[in-house]
Amino acid sequence: MAVSVLANVSLNEEGFLTDPSVWNEEIAKALAEQEGIELTEKHWQVIRWCREAAAKTGASPTLRQITTGTGLSTKELFELFPKGPAKKVAKIAGLSKPEGCI
């Protein structure tokens, strides 16, 4: 599934959307699948919060902002989005790479 949905979408060398305006939930599912993540309602809560925060500030939220805003612990975020949750959730949410992420 991931390949067909992403075939018509432009991604940069790190796998982030080059045009965030094309993002939709099908693209999110395909990007998550590439990361080995099956999205649950808890994932969607984080994704929606990050998209709302980015719409307000113009920047992808940091890990600290995500934990504060969602009420989830850093440990919970790492369980949902292993190996770099702020970067992974930004990618899946169609946002730019957060400041300070390698």
How many strands in all?
0
Residue fraction in strands: under 5%
Structural class: mainly alpha
Helices and strands, in order, run as: HHHHHH
End-to-end distance: 28 Å
The count of helical stretches stands at 6
Report Rg.
Answer: 12 Å
In which range does the helix fraction lie? 40-55%
Average pLDDT confidence is 92
What can be said about the biggest beta sheet?
none
3D shape: globular
Total tally of structural domains: 1
> Segments where pLDDT lies below 50 for 5+ residues?
none
Protein model, in words:
By secondary structure, the chain is mostly helical. It has one domain (2-92). The chain is built from six helices and no strands. The chain has helices at 2-6, 25-34, 41-57, 63-70, 74-80, 85-92. The longest helix has 17 residues, at 41-57. The mean pLDDT is 92.
Keywords:
102 residues, 54% helix
Walk me through the topology.
Layout lengths: L1 H5 L18 H10 L6 H17 L5 H8 L3 H7 L4 H8 L10
